[in-house]
Amino acid sequence: MTIKHFDVDGNLHCSLAMWIGYFDSIMMQIKPNNHGHWEGIILFYHMHTAWYEESNWSLTTNDVELFLRQLEMIDISQFNFEERSVLDALVTVLRNSVKMNGKIRFDYF
After folding, report:
1. Enclosing domain of residue 92
2. Is residue 48 left, alpha or beta, with left meaning phi > 0 and alpha meaning psi from -120 to 50?
3. Smallest Cα–Cα separation from 8: which of 109, 108, 106, 103?
4. Both ends of the chain: CA-CA distance in Å?
5. pLDDT at res. 60
6. What's the pLDDT score for residue 83?
7. 78 with 29: CB under 8 angstroms?
8. In the prediction, which pLDDT does 56 show?
9. In the prediction, which pLDDT does 11 show?
10. pLDDT tens digit sequence for 27-76
11. Neighbours of 14 (CB within 10 A)
């Protein structure tokens, strides 16, 4: 996973690039909400629509906050060392983005 920070009009933003296999492993561990529904990024992921159809997509602040909460609830016991490392880095980047009110851009390969 590579992480790049960039400035847009005085606002710090972050670009993440990761192998799609790690991304898929992480996404598959996110559970539906308390009502049994997918929401946010995970909804589009499972429907294979919208931002997930092509690489280089962005998250808004609300999306970042929800995605962060979803990631923080993942049971990491099913992950190997590399997947845990990627998840930890992703959570750290999202937390920093929330603090700075920045945007996140994802690329996968």
Report:
1. 2-108
2. left
3. 103
4. 10
5. 72
6. 93
7. yes
8. 64
9. 67
10. 999 999 999 999 988 888 888 775 555 556 677 777 889 999 999 999 99
11. 20
How much is the CA Rg of the chain, to the nearest whole Å?
A: 13
Angle made by CA atoms 69, 73, 79, in degrees to the nearest 5? 125
Chain length of the chain: 109
**How many structural domains does the chain have?**
1
At residue 52, the pLDDT reads 55
The pTM assigned to this predicted structure is 0.83
> How far, in Å, CA of 54 to CA of 72, rounded?
25
The token pair that represents 81 in the structure block: 């060392």
The 3-class secondary structure across the chain, one letter per residue, is: CEEEEEEECCEEEEEEEECHHHHHHHHHCCCCCCCCCCCCHHHHHHHCCHHHHCCCEEECHHHHHHHHHHHHCCCHHHCCHHHHHHHHHHHHHHHHHHHHCCCEEEEEC
Q: Which of 38, 24, 37 is nearest to 83 (CA)?
A: 24
Structure tokens at 2: 């590579």
Q: How many Å apart are CA 37 and CA 32, to the nearest integer?
A: 5
